[in-house]
Design goal:
This protein has 193 residues and is mainly alpha-helical. Helices cover 70% and strands 0% of the residues.
Length: 193
């Protein structure tokens, strides 16, 4: 499917249609556009950088394998995160069968100490805050945690999240609100707003 436009000017769906016909350049464009979002999504669920990276690569591999079945109906991010969600659920089922626990990551998703040149006291406070936030996220039911991460971290629309999670929009909304309520209860007094 030739295009007179540069790949950067095309929508995700248009680029995916080019990848569908075997364009590695188009697929690399999609990878560049969405890798970081997937990495943040998987890190928010697993809290392990290596696991998040592995799951990202697995998601893109699966996307490449499924490319011939792609049909541009709905948003491309919803399509991609649906694949990611299935991969996450497969990994969780495997982990349960093996009775394993995922390792905690040493770095925080919101590590801003280097960017703002914070001192050791501020860095320690941020590290403790990261630990408390991730511990609170870990204690959420998985469906609430996923709805919260997709909306808050990834910024996806409720409609796209509903596609990803295969449930009605109102269910996504209630799961996210329940997650926020539980996080507020657990983190009360920790954050000064």
């Amino acid at each position: 499917m030739p295009s007179h436009q540069a790949l950067g000017e095309l929508s995700d769906a248009e680029v995916m249609l080019q990848a569908q016909w075997g364009s590695e350049r188009a697929f690399a464009e999609l990878y560049g556009r969405h890798y970081r979002r997937l990495l943040d999504f998987f890190y928010g669920l697993s809290r392990d950088v290596q696991t998040a990276e592995d799951l990202c690569h697995e998601t893109f591999l699966r996307l490449w394998q499924l490319r011939v079945r792609y049909r541009p109906s709905g948003s491309f991010p919803a399509y991609l995160f649906t694949i990611a969600r299935h991969i996450w659920m497969e990994r969780r089922r495997q982990a349960r069968k093996e009775n394993c626990r995922m390792q905690n990551a040493e770095c925080g998703m919101w590590d801003v100490a280097d960017v703002y040149g914070l001192g050791p006291d501020e860095q320690a406070r941020l590290s403790e805050l990261d630990d408390r936030i991730f511990a609170a996220l870990d204690n959420l039911p998985e469906e609430q945690r996923m709805a919260f991460i997709l909306r808050t971290v990834e910024g996806m629309s409720l409609e796209d999240i509903a596609v990803v999670m295969q449930c009605p929009v109102n269910t996504v909304r209630s799961r996210r609100l329940l997650a926020i309520k539980r996080l507020r209860e657990v983190l009360r007094g920790l954050l000064v707003l």
